[in-house]
Amino acid sequence: MRGLATALLLSLGLAQPAWSQEADRVPDSEILTWAAEACKAKDFTGFFGHFAQNPAVFAAHVGPQVEIRKLAAPHQLVATVAGQDYRDFKIAMVDYSWVDADSAARVEAGKSQSFEDLELTFSDLGKDSWRVGYTKAEFRGEHELVRTYGPPGAYVFAFRDGCWRLTQDLR
After folding, report:
1. At 1, which helix (H) or strand (E)?
2. Can you state the angle between helices 44-53 and 2-11, rounded to 10 degrees?
3. pLDDT of the residue at 24
4. What is the C-alpha end-to-end distance of the chain, expressed in Å?
5. C-alpha to C-alpha distances, 43 to 47, 67, 71, 75, 139, nearest whole angstrom
């Protein structure tokens, strides 16, 4: 699935590695424009690539509140966090690969030399909503999934005010 999602983003010309953005100094305003274009085209996967790799897109597209819910029982509300205070997003994109955001932060801080890859699943929930499931994964080569491990999670995005907003964190 990692390869499929990356291929989708690349084919649309919307994906760019997080580190190359910094190296190329792509202005946030341009990346926000790319995300807005993905929203206009109703291209969730294109939008999500920008959301997962750019702090300005993330900040602009977190809902006013993020509901923390149980993954096994999404109807059960655990807590609600104000959007501007939400900091627990676990997915990052580095060099066209989905990785655990905490492992990316450790690598960036020089505390680790390796990323933990993620297996993502994209589900169109209808009614202009998408669910992105994730779990840590081990791959052989670029595309062959060897195993998944650790607790899974998911995020729900709803299309509001002309674009998607992160509205739920399922744990």
Report:
1. none
2. 100
3. 55
4. 21
5. 6, 24, 25, 27, 27
**Global pTM?**
0.83
> What mean pLDDT is predicted for residues 24-40?
91
CATH code of the domain covering residue 132: 3.10.450
Q: What is the mean pLDDT of residues 39-45?
A: 97
Rounded Cα–Cα distance for residues 136 and 102 (Å): 12
| CB contact set of 90 (below 8 Å; sequence gap of 6+) | 100, 101, 102, 118, 134, 153
The first and second tokens of residue 68, run together, are: 């923390």
Cβ atoms 102, 120 nearer than 8 A: no
- Sign, CA dihedral 154-92-5-148, equals negative
Q: Look at the chain and report how many structural domains it folds into.
A: 1
